[in-house]
Amino acid sequence: MTANNKTSDRDRLLQIGFSAVAEWHCIKNVLSYPSTISTGQADAIFSVKNALYAFCSSDAVLYVGKTTRTIKCRFDGYINPGTNQQTNIKCNKNIKALLSKQRPVEILVFTAHHCFQYGEFEINLAAGLEDSLINMLTPPWNGRNRKRLPISETSATEESLLAQPMSRPASRKTMKPLKTTFKIKLGKAYYEMGFINPGRAVDKKLGKHG
Fold first, then answer.
1. pLDDT for the residue numbered 41
2. What pLDDT digit, counting tens, does each position of 54-71 carry?
3. Cα separation, 72 vs 122, whole angstroms
4. Which of 22-26, 92-96, 136-140, 171-175 has the lowest mean pLDDT?
5. Nearest to 198 by CA among 91, 69, 70, 85
6. Measured in whole angstroms, how far is the alpha carbon of residue 96 from the centre of its chain?
7. What are the structural domains, with CATH classification, of the chain?
8. Engineering a disulfide at 66: which of 24, 62, 130, 181 sits with its beta carbon 3.0 to 4.6 angstroms away?
9. Number of helices and strands in the chain (H, E)
10. Whether 93 contacts 62, CB under 8 Å
11. Contact 99, 23 (CB under 8 A)
12. pTM score, two decimals?
């Protein structure tokens, strides 16, 4: 709890089922994350797939992420980021910067203990929570730190734009075909779960909304 009795963002994660499991350490410029709980508990949590995790310093939530692999596999990327893995590179750099200032970086993990179903379909709770947590907590390392303003606080220009009808889509004759190619490496997550990650380098080719 903070001095004004307001629940901290870290505590809000703990209240919905996150567990504090480890802390980042840096020795000779190499990251590691020794557990702060029993070895058996840590091994069980780090081996679960489809998990959410958060990096916190004091009461602040700095980053929220999701992995379809195990935590251990995902964190290997933060310890040894590839040359094109921008998120891993950024987090590696940010973690080391805080640790160099003697500021702890704690790891919280959320794993769903129950299987949620909607009809015959299974719901991935970790995937469903990620966007909501990022939008609500606006962790600075996620890069999505602009909160939406309520309608009453938007400018007149914004309100008028919201009130405008959508323009009619261009006809087939006026639409220009997309002429671009890029390569996607199909990894383990694709063959096991059907997910692909084209990488940051493809963002510009896909457009603003992918």
1. 94
2. 999 999 999 999 998 999
3. 24
4. 171-175
5. 85
6. 19
7. 9-142 (3.40.1440.40), 180-210 (no CATH)
8. 130
9. 8, 8
10. no
11. no
12. 0.65
